[in-house]
Amino acid sequence: MKQTKSKRRPPLIIGGQTIAAGTRAEIRLKVSETYFGDDVSIHLRVIRAKKPGPAVFVTAAIHGDELNGVGVVHELLCDPDLELVRGTLVLVPVCNVLGFEANERYLPDRRDLNRSFPGSPTGSLASRIAHTLFENVVRNCDLGIDLHTAAIQRTNYPNVRGRLADPAVKRLAEAFGAELIMNGDGPEGSFRREAGAAGCPTICVETGEPWKMEPAMVQFGVRGVRNVLIDLGMMRGEVTPPPYQTRITRNRWLRAKVGGILRFHVAPGQIVRTGQDLASNFTLLGEQRNVLSSPCDGIVLGMTTLPTVKPGEPVCHIGEPAMSLKRIEKALAVSRREQPEINRARRHLATSIHQVAPTPELGTEDASAAS
After folding, report:
1. In whole angstroms, what is the distance from residue 163 CA to residue 182 CA?
2. Which stretches make up the Succinylglutamate desuccinylase/Aspartoacylase catalytic domain (predicted)?
3. For 6, 80, 246, 280, which has the most beta carbons within 10 A of its beta carbon?
4. What is the pTM of this model?
């Protein structure tokens, strides 16, 4: 595959520190101060090969409670065998340091850092942090990987998101090695959208739950970052492909129609067909009230992990793949025999969901009514 051209900008200066080719640097970017006047800083490591090549950033915890990405970057930071043959790698384990310390998704002012880019040096706390991160990391890189998890009380089956009309984003998304790829610019002010607009094509990777470093999700992320670096010629090695790879052409959340306690019939990553039971809703005393069914053939992209719901709350996220379900099932059958490690993420996520067989007494509701 044709190599991505790197921008000519020697020497590399981040946070006022010059990083020469063939060296590593630990950098702290001051983004705020405590009530005591002490510095609050984003920690990052810059690794530069002797040979020129693309500059790639990997960021995590823009939402402070999304720890799987932190685990991914931490594994890369602790890996003594991580050696670049060309280019530059910028690793940022925690972007939202204030949210991370408080185990909170947002900043202390309740603003979402992932809606605050590219930021301003004279704006709100969120805007100032975004500006510092953007100017020092994005402006110095050619490509980016931004690691996320689902929101609170939800889980996501591993997937990659990006503006696939951009060839560089498409290449990153496919090289990462996720089974599922979703097209989209991202919300206004989000890191990947604004980085792309600034000339640094960036993908968003979604894996698992917040508040956890899930081993299978971390392994998936580490493998994906390595895949990208190998594909770009920045590292030696062989790319690890997924069992299959397809775009999601449409996705939708199915929401609870009534309140109660859910009994799930599917797990993240599972193939479902039109009319298939997804979850049954029961009263506290065990009376079945209704059943949510799938309105389409698709794949379970994500689910609530909280089994109690009120009307209108999200239950199951279904994506419609471009690839036929028969082809996906055939590919998965082969991978179970030849690549058992690839299926670890699917098995892990299934353990987070209490999955039971549908109750036969109550017929499944019409899909349009259930959704």
Report:
1. 8
2. 52-229
3. 280
4. 0.92
